[in-house]
């Protein structure tokens, strides 16, 4: 099993934690490249930015999709 640590900020983490959800979506600016670091079932960890610099949670990766839209 592989692991990947996705960096996120404390406010986003707190918002998700308050909602007590069982699913989260993350995105990358630009969305031009496939995410190939993990396969379905691998562990995705959530690392908080400075000043926390710690793993705050995790979950099992399901899939990656490129969504193209017009705003």
What is the CA-atom radius of gyration, in angstroms? 13 Å
Mean pLDDT: 88
In total, how many domains does the architecture comprise? Answer: 1
Largest sheet at a glance? 3 strands, mixed
Order of helices and strands: EHEE
Catalogue the unreliable spans: none
The count of strands amounts to 3
Measure the end-to-end span: 38 Å
Q: By helix and strand content, what is the structural category?
A: alpha+beta
* Count of helical regions: 1
Shape: globular
Helix content: 10-25%
| Multimeric status of the protein | single chain
| Arrangement of strands in the largest sheet | 1-2-3
Fraction of residues in β-strands: 25-35%
Please give a structural write-up:
By secondary structure, the chain is α+β, with helices and mostly antiparallel strands. It has a 3-stranded mixed β-sheet. The protein is globular. The chain has one domain. The mean pLDDT is 88. It contains 1 helix and 3 strands, in the order E-H-E-E. It has one helix at residues 10-19; strands at 3-8, 43-48, 55-60. The longest helix has 10 residues, at 10-19.
Features:
1 helix; globular; 71 residues; alpha+beta; three-stranded mixed beta sheet
Brief write-up:
With 71 residues, the protein is of the alpha+beta class.
Question: Which SSEs are present, and which pair or pack?
Answer:
Blueprint lengths: L2 E6 L1 H10 L23 E6 L6 E6 L11
């Amino acid at each position: 099993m592989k692991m990947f640590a996705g960096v996120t900020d404390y406010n986003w983490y707190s918002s998700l934690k308050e909602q007590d959800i069982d699913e989260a979506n993350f995105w990358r600016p630009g969305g031009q490249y496939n995410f190939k670091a993990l396969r379905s079932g691998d562990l995705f960890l959530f690392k908080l930015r400075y000043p926390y610099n710690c793993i705050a949670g995790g979950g099992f990766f399901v899939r990656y999709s490129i969504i193209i839209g017009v705003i």
